[in-house]
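W.,

You were right to be curious about this one. When I first looked at the sequence I had no strong expectations either way, so I just let the prediction run and decided to look at it fresh. Below is the sequence, 104 residues in total, followed by the output.
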Amino acid sequence: MDTLSRLAETIAARRGADPETSWVARLNARGVPVIARKLGEEAVETVIAALSGNREELVGEAADVLFHLLVLLDAKGVPLAEVLAELERREGTGGIAEKAARGQ
């Protein structure tokens, strides 16, 4: 099992934990809109880190984005395996061709 899969399992296990002791439980207690906003904040911080040229900061912010994305997926009942399967389905298809196939 890879790191993201283990993290997804940990997030699922902590969803119903005490919000006083678990960040995952606290986010879930506040609801999907808060989780989604937190993911957006982390995404913006990742962009800022990328533009600042600070590699260490970028790595940390990218990890935060992945973590909060997994929290959001879990809250919405979307397993990581489903997202990975979609990426696998798209593998080998150029981005422009893939977007055209979706009508975008």
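Here's what jumped out at me. The radius of gyration is 16 Å. And, maybe more interesting for your project: Residues 95 and 101 are 10 Å apart (CA to CA).

Coffee later to discuss?

I.
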